[in-house]
């Protein structure tokens, strides 16, 4: 064993800015995911998808920082309007804080496992993993590793590709159900609507929208249904239906383009380059 689980976790988190630097921390988390994917595009599919998702979370964090700006906290002549805005802002900020917490929790849960796997392979991950707590991570990476071994023997092995994607989707489901769901459960009703409309992923990196590489929760589930709260990204069934039928196919389509010069790959490289800029 090269390092213990906690040592791998400290290594993964040591590059992150302090938690009070909200946007910088999010950008570094995004950069780490993008870097892992670009270094291992054939196997670490979850990391690539997570880079785009984390960047989207960064928009919510930026909105929260703008709401906390000093010039927004003063200047209302009408005390009733000021009180109303104060209450609304507090509620929205609480929701944004939950979203930020989710971003941090996912990284804390899964980053050390990526670092251990990249640094020492499956044997290192298994040696470091805690019983029960990390069973799902080990199972997901185990499928990825079996696929990786098959690819080493035959680059065109379909079973290898199936195992790699199945393992990455296993990690994705663990993240969505076990790590993120408690965060969604704590959102206010308004926060759930905002999070639903904010669940927009564009893997193309192009200013011209391309439906093949785009995954929009509100578009998939219906704008009226989303606005009314009948469909919500906070609902695990609604969210996984969107992930399974829209996000994963869109990311698979984008992933197939990453082997060439493409706007989506350029966008991934930009995200990864933040790590060097902030070092």
Question: How does this model look, in words?
Answer:
With 279 residues, this protein is mainly alpha-helical. It has one domain. Helices cover 73% and strands 2% of the residues. It has helices spanning 5-14, 22-39, 45-67, 79-128, 135-153, 158-185, 189-198, 217-221, 223-228, 236-255, 263-278, and strands spanning 200-202, 214-216. The chain has a two-stranded antiparallel sheet with strand order 1-2. The longest helix is centred in the middle third of the chain and has 50 residues, at 79-128.
Number of H/I helices: 11
Give a quick account of the main beta sheet: strands, pairing sense, barrel closure. Answer: 2 strands, antiparallel
What's the SSE pattern? HHHHHHHEEHHHH
Distance between the termini: 28 Å
| Major sheet: arrangement of strands | 1-2
As a percent range, the share of strand residues is under 5%
Unreliable stretches, pLDDT < 50, 5 or more residues?
71-75, 80-88
Helix-residue proportion: over 70%
Structural class by SSE content: mainly alpha
């Amino acid at each position: 064993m090269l390092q213990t689980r906690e040592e791998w976790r400290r290594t993964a988190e040591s590059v992150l800015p302090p938690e009070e630097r909200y946007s910088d921390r999010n950008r570094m988390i995004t950069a780490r995911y993008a870097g892992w994917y670009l270094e291992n595009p054939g196997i670490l599919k979850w990391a690539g998808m997570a880079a785009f998702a984390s960047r989207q979370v960064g928009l919510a964090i930026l909105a929260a920082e703008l709401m906390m700006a000093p010039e927004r906290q003063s200047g209302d002549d009408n005390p009733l309007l000021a009180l109303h805005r104060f209450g609304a802002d507090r509620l929205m900020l609480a929701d944004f804080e939950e979203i930020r917490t989710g971003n941090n929790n996912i990284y804390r849960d899964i980053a050390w496992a990526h670092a251990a796997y990249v640094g020492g392979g499956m044997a290192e991950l298994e040696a470091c993993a805690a019983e029960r707590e990390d069973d799902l991570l080990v199972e997901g990476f185990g499928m990825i590793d079996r696929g990786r071994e098959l690819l080493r023997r035959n680059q065109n092995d379909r079973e290898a590709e199936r195992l790699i994607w199945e393992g990455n989707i296993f990690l994705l489901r663990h993240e969505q159900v076990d790590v993120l769901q408690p965060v969604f459960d704590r959102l206010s009703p308004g926060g759930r609507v905002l999070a639903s409309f904010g669940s927009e992923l564009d893997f193309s990196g192009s200013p011209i929208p391309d439906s093949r590489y785009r995954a929009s929760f509100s578009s998939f589930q219906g704008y009226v249904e989303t606005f009314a709260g009948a469909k919500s990204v906070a609902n695990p069934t609604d969210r996984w239906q969107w992930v399974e039928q829209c996000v994963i196919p869109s990311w698979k389509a984008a992933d197939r383009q990453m082997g060439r010069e493409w706007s989506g790959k350029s966008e991934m490289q930009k995200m990864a380059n933040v790590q060097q800029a902030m070092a």
